Amino acid sequence: KPEVTDVVTVGSLNRDQVLRLAAAAEQNSEHPLGRAVVVAAAGIADVPPASSFVAIRGEGVEATVEGRKVAVGRHKDPEHADVIDGLEAQGRTVAVVRVDGNVEAILAIADQVGEHSAEAVATLREHGVESVMVTGDNRKTAEAVAAQVGIHEVEAEVRPEGKADLVQRWQKGRVVAMVGDGINDAPALAQADIGFAIGTGTDVAIEVADVTLLRSVSRHPKGDVDRLAEAGSEPAESHTTTVAASAALRRPQEPNCALCGGPHPFDTVVPSVIWNTVIRAKQLPDFLCLTCIV
């Protein structure tokens, strides 16, 4: 999960005062980075309520806290460009905190790379599935993280609607899978041939996706990625933004296994479409229960 690693104060407020106001502004946000700010302020007593909350897609949030206008997000700040550049070079996502229009602090947020992420990307590549990182982060941060996991193609500083445009462009001659967890990923998840939402992500991402990923590659590395990537008789070319392990389609009733025919709870089945590397995504309703898979 993302976590705040640095709070660089540049105004009249100290660290705790900055986190208190930033957390108050972010407490109604569904964005993972916003949640990280709230968690960072957990040890600070009396985080006040906020009003006039506005989430600006791809930019950040604004709110009124104790009569002060607080903005947290991707604001340009040429005056502190050296600080921002240094943090971004370390693979950090930077958020600027403004209070009543004045820059008070620079927050650095890091999303720790999973222990087995590089192995998962390599395994997907072995199966003919190429991974592409698509992110709203700046290019320095994106390339630093991509290098850690072995992703060679990076699309950075992409706005939410731009993610959907990229997916649509890649769909010319290819099957495209999109993995995302945030509100900014929703348009691309809906556009993709198959959309994978992270189970711990935002409600809107889960609602528009075809598949909800229930567990992490960091806990179940190679075997589950093999299962997701294996393509029976013919490999497929796919683009994904990240990788995850096992999945269950969201359906209104318990599905029947395509092999044994028995009904099974959702957490014990895998869509058989996954076994075809989503070549026929959205067309096969069959499931395979974990008993038959094993």
Element layout with pairings:
Blueprint: E1 2-9, H1 15-26, H2 32-40, E2 51-56, E3 60-65, E4 68-73, H3 81-89, E5 93-99, E6 102-111, H4 117-126, E7 130-134, H5 139-149, E8 153-155, H6 160-170, E9 175-180, H7 186-191, E10 194-198, H8 203-208, E11 211-213, H9 222-229, E12 238-240, E13 247-249, E14 269-271, E15 287-289, H10 290-293
Parallel strand pairs: 7-8, 7-12, 9-10, 9-12, 10-11
Antiparallel strand pairs: 1-6, 2-3, 3-4, 4-5, 5-6, 11-13, 14-15
Helix pairs in contact: 1-2, 4-9
Molecular structure report:
29% of the residues lie in helices and 26% in strands. The protein is α/β, with parallel strands linked by helices and 294 residues long. α1 (15-26) crosses α2 (32-40).
**Which stretches are low in confidence, meaning pLDDT under 50 for 5 or more residues running?**
230-253, 265-285
User: Can you summarize the main beta sheet?
Assistant: 7 strands, mixed
Percent in helix = 25-40%
The end-to-end span amounts to 31 Å
Strand composition percent: 25-35%
Give the topology string: H per helix, E per strand: EHHEEEHEEHEHEHEHEHEHEEEEH
Number of strands: 15
Radius of gyration: 21 Å
Find the structural class using helix and strand composition.
alpha/beta
**Shape label:** globular
Instruction: Output the strand order for the largest sheet.
Output: 8-7-12-9-10-11-13
**Number of separate helices:** 10
Calculate the mean pLDDT score and round it: 76
